[in-house]
Amino acid sequence: MKGFRGTLVDFTGDPRTQPGALRHVEDGLLMVDDGRVVSAGPFRQGSGLEITDLSGRLLVPGFIDAHVHSAQTDIVASPSASLLDWLERHAFAAEARFAEPGHARQASEQFLDELVRNGTTTAAVFPSSHPQSVDALFEAAERRGMRMVAGKLMMDRHCPPEVRDEAQRSYEEAKALIRRWHGRARLAYAVSPRFAPTSSETQLELAGRLLEEHPGVLLQTHLSETESEVRWVRELFPWARNYLEVYARYGMLRPGALFAHCLHLDAGEWDRLAAAGAAAVHCPGSNLFLGSGLFDFGAARKAGAALALGSDVGGGTSFSMLRAMYDAYKVARLRGLPFDALDGFYLATLGGARALGMDRQIGNFEPGREADFVVLRPDATALLARRMSQAQSIEERLFLLMALGDERAVEATYVLGAKT
To answer: Which runs of E-coded beta strand occur in 158-310?
Structure first.
């Protein structure tokens, strides 16, 4: 058994709706055995255990990035006029390179290095449409003991031949990947149609069939990222009342479904998404970078939808979930809506775990949870240290880490109780 001494911060619920959900132990001890949390509480002298002294640092549950593209690391910060232009000019070409297994392996290792450097221990990932891109990511994640969700992109139209698959082939390839990886170690498969416009109705039907045939498999896709995309969906699927209806018809609106962006939903779509137990993944960094729109926290909260945060690299320009929190804060302020550090840290930890349906495994320091955690330095930069010296509460300290922190604030990342 091992102990880690430091300032413990986690959540028992959503602080926006549950007062007292923040747990804070200023001089705390996190006890870990065989990769799981045994206890989290005040430090007491004389335990006689092996203790790593991290006094003065904050220990928080490992960050959860609920939407990120492992095949797009090489195109981070590639400007473009719009989302669709960005896909055609940058994303498809980057993803085409993952047809080569050696590139897929090397790029997957570097991608996971970036996650760990930024304190992210769990992620929902889009590799490419090539099965070897999924194999490479899962192999690397398994070696590191990381919790990872991923699936091959399904897209059989409106994309270059180098990344296009065929509906039946994509179905068969996904089945083989599910058999090989889902439930192995800390890995989970997600059926992953890129977005409705790049899949034929036949492919969407087969994606829904995969979900029916394999209970427990997740679904991840994009929804209403830009107004032009919404108009395109209306042209391609004239029978649908709205964008969400396309996914609903093919059995994809369900618990375990992660819909990235959700910027241009109407009230009915929000209500339906929430009632189905699906989750919206807010990706503020990429939304701001590509000029896609401003997420409506008010509508999401009114509907009671499950929410998580995503970096959305490579549309997003940082792997840091601290940056994602701060971008979310700025988006909410532009909307005239409340958002504070507790919202940000909750969404990047327990909120993300709930969205993934994994809050019994990760997300806080409850006994029995997997011991993934991040060590944050309040004095990581001179400016942070100066501002922290004036902070009067844990809420202020968390806000400063959110607003002024980045990967430099991450002193260490632990996976299953081991420094990685």
So the answer is: 187-193, 218-223, 257-261, 279-282, 306-309
DSSP-derived letter for residue 92 is H
Encode pLDDT of 367-414 as tens digits.
999 999 999 999 999 999 999 999 999 999 999 999 999 999 999 999
Identify whether the C-beta of residue 142 lies closer than 8 Å to the C-beta of residue 184.
Answer: yes
With contact defined as beta carbons under 8 Å apart, do 31 and 1 qualify? yes
Asked whether the bond before 336 is cis by omega within 30 degrees of 0, the reply is: no
Strands 257-261 and 279-282: parallel
pTM of the model: 0.97
Q: What is the DSSP letter of 319?
A: -
Structure tokens at 76: 């981070």
In tens, the pLDDT along 257-301 reads: 999 999 999 999 999 999 999 999 999 999 999 999 999 999 999
Residue 91: φ, ψ to 5°: -65, -50
Under a CB-based contact definition with an 8 Å cutoff, are residues 254 and 219 in contact?
yes
| DSSP result, 116-178 | HHTTEEEEEEE--SSHHHHHHHHHHHHHHT-EEEE--EE--SSS-TTT---HHHHHHHHHHHH
Say how many CA atoms lie within 13 Å of 383 toward its Cβ.
8
| CA–CA separation, 348 and 59 (whole Å) | 14
